[in-house]
Write a structure and sequence with these properties.
15 helices, binds 2-oxoglutaric acid, Aldehyde Dehydrogenase, Chain A, domain 2, 41% helix, 6-stranded mixed β-sheet, binds NADPH dihydro-nicotinamide-adenine-dinucleotide phosphate, 2 domains
């Protein structure tokens, strides 16, 4: 056990507590670099955190919007002011390149500031009753104590886009970040604490999904659960929340199509696919993992894409020359490499995808393209979550659209085309929560709804003013003078 002073503790009821044990936070670019030691808690800490949140709820839910605005605004402003330093921490713990990590931190700051404004704008409806002499008033109330469970791939933005609307709407929060990336969530906890968040309103419990996560989801003091992560864990959480009759919001995987039509601008299409498939090491639920390419442009596109892919520099996230950082850990790397092996049996040709050794202990992999892939192949159907994309050749727009929609997922779908007719039809008929025209499938704004259809999402949308659908309960009041 480390000295207590060296451990980043959990924040429970306004106090920093050490947890049952601690774990090193390891840099995936260089595993000799330990980012810090973070508390590792189980069910007892979850009980304490939920109790603290319940105790804080009456006062926080009654606190006016000005208090909530000021807290969220202060946190957002400091995230923006310290984006380089916090971005560096993010790059060290997750492996995203420094520009991506600084950009994500700035996005988290903007999210807090956006929801500071939303705290002031939360509104209801006054309507006339169909019965004379009666007034109808629809208001939004906080849901109660919400459990937030977040993944490792956006370690500051996702905790921000769940925490900020939860607090803006007057809820109390227990956040459990991914065990691989507790550092950025800890920074959010530090900032909320520093800027006067009342004890118990926001609680941080770091620990494993199997222990802390399960305990949180099934805790009787929780009113709602918002989760981002794998489809398998999402299904478990949905089942538990169904049995316990609690509100649930799930953001899970994707197998996002990017259609490239013959009339696309070749350079725009190649850049959108390089970005969508490989940036952030492909570790985005919005990544373009199926590149669906019409026959006329296919060969020129593949040639240009392969050239662009081979030119991408894979390296240490902190190295200014790196364009693609490492994979997050050994388990994810092994999984990616096993999909590359599978693609050798499924696709006509595999380009790249090998493990790289840049002379330091880290989890480096070359980006991979699976050429001549079939949409029914496992590598075209299962979320890989690494720098790998299938290239699927199609005859025409109709086949491209049908192939794009032939997936169990429905998060993001893109098209590169010069045809307004095809772009409009794709926007209308794509079975996805988000559609991108001549843009990568990944990389979204912070002030508009985020989420998908089919197996990608369950429950109300996240982000923008739509976030209030999940973080509030609607009340309809009838009154007669
Ligand atoms: N859609 C997305 O944005 C993401 C998708 N994924 C997909 O998931 C795969 C595996 O990644 P992984 O990190 O294991 O994803 P998980 O779904 O296991 O983890 C996401 C979050 O859920 C927690 N968790 C895990 N099990 C439970 C449980 N039984 N009850 C409550 N919470 C739980 C995790 O904790 P802990 O990490 O501490 O175990 C983490 O905080 C990836 O390869 C990728 O395909 C992963 C991350 C994000
Ligand atoms: O593409 C983005 O900007 C967001 C992606 C995301 O939220 C995720 O991968 O979990």
């Amino acid at each position: 056990m480390k000295d207590m002073n060296d451990i980043h503790g959990n924040l429970i009821g306004g106090a920093w507590l050490p947890g049952d044990d601690c774990r090193p936070n390891v840099n995936p670019s260089d595993t000799r670099d330990i980012v810090g030691h973070y508390a590792w808690a189980g069910g007892a800490a979850v009980d304490q955190a939920v109790d603290a949140a319940r105790a804080a709820f009456p006062a926080w839910s009654a606190a006016g919007p000005q208090v909530r605005h000021d807290l969220l605004d202060a946190v957002g402003t400091e995230l923006l002011a310290r984006k380089d330093e916090i971005g560096r921490l993010l790059a060290r713990e997750e492996g995203k390149t420094l520009p991506e990590a600084v950009g994500e931190t700035a996005r988290a700051g903007q999210i807090f500031r956006f929801f500071a404004g939303e705290a002031l704008r939360l509104s209801g409806d006054a309507q006339q009753s169909v019965r004379p002499g009666i007034e109808v008033c629809v208001t939004r109330e906080p849901v109660g104590v919400v459990a937030l469970i977040t993944p490792w791939n956006f370690p500051v933005a996702i905790p921000a886009w769940k925490t900020a609307p939860a607090l803006a709407c007057g809820n109390c929060v227990v956040l459990k970040p991914a065990e691989l990336t507790p550092g950025c969530a800890h920074v959010i906890a530090q900032l909320l604490h520093k800027h006067g968040c009342p004890p118990g309103v926001f609680n941080l419990v770091m620990g494993s999904g199997a222990a802390a996560g399960e305990a949180l989801v099934s805790h009787p003091g929780i009113d709602a659960v918002s989760f981002t992560g794998s489809a398998a864990t999402g299904a478990r959480i949905a089942a538990a929340c169904g049995t316990l009759r609690r509100k649930v919001q799930l953001e899970m995987g994707g197998k996002n199509p990017m259609v490239v039509l013959d009339d696309a601008d070749l350079d725009t299409a190649v850049q959108a696919c390089l970005n969508g498939a490989f940036f952030s090491t492909g570790q985005r639920c919005t990544a373009s993992s199926r590149l669906i390419v019409q026959k006329g442009i296919h060969d020129a596109f593949v040639e240009s894409l392969c050239r662009g892919m081979r030119a991408l520099r894979v390296g240490d996230a902190l190295d200014a020359a790196s364009q693609i950082g490492p994979v997050v850990d050994q388990r994810q790397l092994d999984s990616n490499l096993s999909y590359v092996d599978l693609a050798r049996t499924e696709a006509a040709e595999v380009v790249g995808g090998e493990r790289l050794d840049p002379g330091k202990p880290g989890f480096y992999q070359a980006p991979a393209l699976f050429l001549g892939a079939a949409n029914k192949a496992r590598t075209s159907r299962e979320e890989i979550f690494g720098p790998c994309a299938s290239v699927i050749r199609v005859e025409d727009f109709d086949e491209a659209l049908a192939t794009a929609n032939d997936t169990e997922f429905g998060l993001s779908a893109g098209i590169c085309t010069g045809s307004l007719k095809h772009a409009s039809e794709f926007r209308r008929r794509a079975e996805a929560g988000m559609v991108m025209v001549n843009l990568p499938t990944a990389g979204v704004d912070y002030h508009v709804p985020f989420g998908g259809r089919k197996a990608s999402s369950l429950g109300p949308r996240e982000q923008g003013r739509y976030a209030a659908e999940f973080y509030t309960a609607v009340k309809t009041a009838y009154s007669q003078a």
